[in-house]
Fold:
Amino acid sequence: MKYLFLSCFFVLCATLHAQQMEQLKLWPEEPHNEAELYLYFPSQQQKQSPAVLICPGGGYAGLAIDHEGHTMAKWFAEKGLVAIVLKYRLPKGEHTIPLKDAEKAMSVIRENAVKWGVLSSKVGVVGSSAGGHLAASLSTLATAANRPDFAILFYPVISLDDRITHAGSKQNLLGELIHDETYVDRYCLEKQIDAKTPKTLLLLSDDDTVVVPENSLLYYEALKNKQISAAMYIFPSGGHGFGITAPFTYHEEVKGLISKWLKYIQIL
Structure:
C-alpha cells in the first residue's frame, strides 16, 4: 500500500508539472497592451522540444481561450511539446493587430528557444475558427522569420468571399474596409499561399454551418497547387467549435490523427 501511494503521488506530481503554466506580457514595454502568452511545458521535457503557438477562435470578437486554448495546450504539453497560448488583441476593425501579435509571439518563442528548451526549427501554429484564420495568416502573410514550421487548423475561416466566409469574423477584422477589395483579397488566404507556407493539417466536420467546409477545401487545394504537404480530415458530424474535448464524438480520433501527423512530418 505504501508503494502504491508513492507511485500515485509521483504520477500526480508529474501531471501537475505538465500543466504548470507561466504567464507573461507579449508587449511588456506597453503597460496597457493586453496581449499575453501562457506557456505550458512537458513534464519530461527533452533538452530541446518542439513547440506550438495556439490561437483560439472567437470570430475576432472574443476568445474561446479555454477549450481552444488552455485545454489544447495541456494536451500538446502531454505529448511532449512546449505549448504557448496566445491571447491576442481583438482587431475591432484594425486588421493589422492580430497578425502583429502573432508575429511578435513567434519571434518571442524563437528568441527564448534556449531558455524555454524549444527547438527553434520546429515551432508550429495551431488555430481554431477565426484563430485558424490568424494561424493561416501567420503561415502566408508573415515575414519569413516569423513563419511557423507547421500548421494545424481546426475548422478555420480561410476566405473572406461573402459566399463562404464567416460574416462576423470578416466584419470584426476589416471594419470600415469590409468592402475594399484590396484588403478582402489580402485576407482570402487561399490566394496568399507561397513556397514559404508550411505543411498543414486541416480538421473539420461536414455539418459545420458556422464556417462552411469550403474554406478548408479551398486552402487544401491551394496548398497542393503549390506542392506543399497537406492532410485534411472531415468528420461526418461535430458542427463547429469541437476542439479536442470529450463532448465531440471523434475527440480520440482527432488526437490520434494529430499525433500521427506530427510523427509523419518528423516533429515528434
About this structure: The chain has nine helices and eight strands. Strands lie at 21-25, 36-40, 49-55, 82-87, 118-128, 150-154, 199-205, 230-235.
